[in-house]
Amino acid sequence: SREPEKKTTGYFIHTYIDDDDETGVLVPAKKVHFDVIEKPETSGPSNRPLSTPASPGRSDIDDSDPEVDDKIPKPPGPVGRPGRNGYNLRVALQWQDERHEKVKAFINKLVDSKLDCTISFSKQVKEKLDVVRQQAATKFPILAEYRGQWATDDFIRCRLKSRRVVLQKAELERQYLTRYRSG
Q1: Which of 50, 77, 104, 159 pairs with 62 at a CA distance of 20 to 30 A?
Q2: Is the pLDDT reported for residue 106 higher than 80?
Q3: Polar residues: which segments have biased composition (predicted)?
């Protein structure tokens, strides 16, 4: 007779920085909730989970690939739309406020100086985006912990979106003033 599989819950620590010894060395960690199906001891040596946090229900991912296992996956949905199947970047990263503000301010300055804030992320020149990503990762190595640089890209997307709105509003005000001053 075969024993039934039992379901347990496990936790990792997700995207906060531990600097308890105050050396200034950043130690990234991950926190992801997941369900693990454990097979009974009699069924064989492998207790490998059938589901991974990045790919629920998929067993076709090669868990030996360090690029897959070591990087923090992007949350589902678009950044900046937590009420519409997206997520809040500050909440998703779970960083201390001071770190979040420093990274955000640095990336905002890079975006303002290196990218065209009148166009969306997807229309930016790839080489210029790569410069911003590289400089941000050099200044804040924690950004390299995110699969596909999604955290950096989300900071960039948020800045481009907010700057584009401000610039569009300023242009509309300029057009309004021009129209009514000359007419």
Answers
A1: 77
A2: yes
A3: 43-54
Residue 145 vs residue 180, higher pLDDT? 145
Sequence-distant (≥ 6) Cβ neighbours of residue 81 within 8 angstroms: 87
**Contact of 124 with 116, CB cutoff 8 Å:** yes
The H or E element that residue 107 is part of is: helix 97-114
- Dist CA 40 CA 5 (whole Å): 7
Which residues, listed in sequence order, are joined to residue 28 by a DSSP beta bridge?
17
User: What is the residue type of 160?
Assistant: L
| Token duo for residue 83 | 């009420």
Whether pLDDT at 111 is above 90:
yes
For 74, how many CA atoms within 13 A lie in the half-sphere containing its CB? 14
